[in-house]
Give the backbone structure.
Amino acid sequence: MKDTGTGPAPERLAAVKGMNDVLPADAAYWERVEAAIGALARAYGYSQIRTPIVEFTRLFRRGIGAVTDIVEKEMYSFRDALNGEELSLRPECTASVVRAAIEHNLLYDGPKRLWYAGPMFRHEKPQLGRSRQFHQFGVEALGFAGPDVDAEVILMGARLWDDLGLGHVRLEINSIGEAPERARHRADLIAYLEAHQEGLDEDARRRLYSNPLRILDTKNPAMQEIADGAPRLVDYLGDESRGHFEALQVLLRDSGIGFSVNPRLVRGLDYYNRTVFEWISSGLGSQGTICGGGRYDALMALMGGKSAPACGFAIGLERVIALLHQEAPLAPGESCDVYLVHQGAAAGRLALRVAEGLRSAGLDVVLHCSPDGQGSSFKSQMKRADSSGAPFAVILGDEEVAAGCASVKALREAAPASQGPQQRVALDQLSDYLVGQLVGTGDFEE
Ligand code: ATP
Ligand code: MG
């Protein structure tokens, strides 16, 4: 910026820490993942639901649980300065989907399979695989009690990894039973942890009475021994929970899905019961979980709706995209079909209309516009055309305007028009000609 000497240069603004831009170079990855998600949801009969980013804070406090990490210390909560309402940016979407399902009575005519995708917000320490605005794709199967739907949502994950070309993802499953089973286990677990007080880290001491189950999920190496020796929740399951868990394992084996049972797997949200699972990648270091899910049969009633069993998952899309970069990188971005070069006032006026005509025929066209608005030399325009990646340049100059035609130049050797250096084509035949050429190269999709 030019220093006019009239004062300090204006402050350069940056994005909020932990909230990242997706730049054009990365956008192709997002588009790829979004396309895969849409196709996956259709293949399994899930319908999209879009809920607001801002909800009442008490929705999350009640839905996720007041003593969870998310609600205790990760939520962006604020008071609406205009009306005093206590609001939060959504840290996840299950509570919102359940709220919407109840509010709009979505289950009135039977169970519903729903999916969502969008930004979530958690005030965490930004690091690799962890940001403050991140994106999740999730499904929620509402109104289904059986292990078949647990298996279905797990299979959806497996299919998505496959579709995206991600190989190194493993599945861990566990059952955390029902509330009375957890209560019995909890009492024994607290007694056990109290007996090992001296070995607990600060986090574990803090959670000892509020969320002892979560202590078993510790990533602290010094605590592994204590966690390994703790009473296992699976040993407290009653017949029904055990039957559900075993039936799920049979279905997964039938489907050829590899998994391991991790008796210490618990999820960081309060609403889960019975089945919990995670898909974990080995390629992302300690932030390797790309999908977490499970059953939440009590949530509908807890949120004030009619009781209905449910099951779902949430996938962290930034982590999936980081894996794509490693395991299945995309070829350089798609280019346009035509770069339109023009010189002279008459050609400049015609160019806009010619470009529109080509677009109406289904072609992707970039029209040259000069940076200074004064027009560009032919040479510099052809340079731009080359670096655009377009297979063809369409050239309009005084001669072409006078003759009612355009010159077409093939820019890539593979294009058949490179037989001759340049081809004159009448304007009223230009789109047909180009489509014909592009179909020949396999570049054109109608
Ligand atoms: P973690 O143990 O990594 O904190 P979590 O249990 O908080 O995960 P969930 O609430 O189950 O995660 O969210 C599901 C998925 O969303 C995670 O497996 C992860 O892929 C992604 N995710 C969660 N928090 C973040 C974040 N801050 N940044 C990026 N992705 C995230
Ligand atoms: Mg977390």
In short: The chain has two domains: 24-177+237-327, 338-438. The mean pLDDT is 92.
